[in-house]
Amino acid sequence: xTEHPSAGSAxxxxxxxxxxxxxxxxxxxxxAVREILxxxxxxxxxxxxxxxxxxxxxxxxxxxxxxxxxxxELMSTTFDIGHEELVLVRDVPFYSMCEHHLVPxxxxxxxxxxxxxxxxxxxxxxLARLVDIFAKRPQVQEQLTTQVVEALMEHLCPRGAIVVxxxxxxxxxxxxxxxxxxxxxxxAVRGQLRDAATRSEAMSLMLHxxxx
Length: 212
Ligand SMILES: Nc1nc2c(ncn2[C@@H]2O[C@H](COP(=O)(O)OP(=O)(O)OP(=O)(O)O)[C@@H](O)[C@H]2O)c(=O)[nH]1
Ligand SMILES: [Zn+2]
Hints:
Its EC number is 3.5.4.16. Homopolymer. Residues 29-206 form the GTP cyclohydrolase I domain. One of its GO terms (molecular function) is GTP cyclohydrolase I activity. Belongs to the GTP cyclohydrolase I family. By secondary structure, this protein is α+β, with helices and mostly antiparallel strands. The chain has two domains: 26-63, no CATH class; 73-207, GTP Cyclohydrolase I, domain 2 (2-Layer Sandwich). Helices cover 35% and strands 23% of the residues. It has helices spanning 26-39, 52-63, 71-74, 124-135, 141-156, 170-173, 196-207; strands at 78-80, 87-98, 104-114, 120-122, 138-139, 160-169, 184-191. The radius of gyration is 19 Å and the shape is elongated.
């Protein structure tokens, strides 16, 4: 059995661990799921559950695929189009897994940046993919928000960047405090977007006039 390659490394939100190498250990997940089913008093051999351990293993492989993806590689395609003002992609849906309970939290991310003076921009889809790279990991919302903004700063060198994440956490909805509908909003702002007027313009573009 292999241990997590980055286990024990200092997990600073500002420097996400390097991508994990090697495939997900599907048989290990299957064995663990079987144990969970037994522990709650179920029969993993009954008809409806027989395929469940392998289904869960494949579902986890997908849910955590961001651990094996490299933001540097994703952001390596840039264009110089001389646009020096705000670029903003709003309402990017995402699904992540709360690292405390391993249940989903999900919602929308809004990502904006002011390109570098050379006008270096990336493809719009890459911004959405960047959210997925960090969402598809065991995660907390604040860290997801910070990791996306830090990756933008590191790989695009923009004059400023802003990321706002709005999410519902199933660990707060379906269990525990049981508050369905409660939404958590986090933001991370860097560079020129910290300036009050610029930040407020970006925030209002992100959060107002959206279809509900
Ligand atoms: N800051 C932050 N907290 C989170 C996030 N996701 C879940 N949590 C919280 O993590 C906390 C874990 O608290 P614990 O007391 O260790 O666990 P618990 O007994 O299951 O807590 P309850 O959820 O209150 O039942 C809870 O308050 C969750 O609401 C997140 O993305 N960010
Ligand atoms: Zn949780």
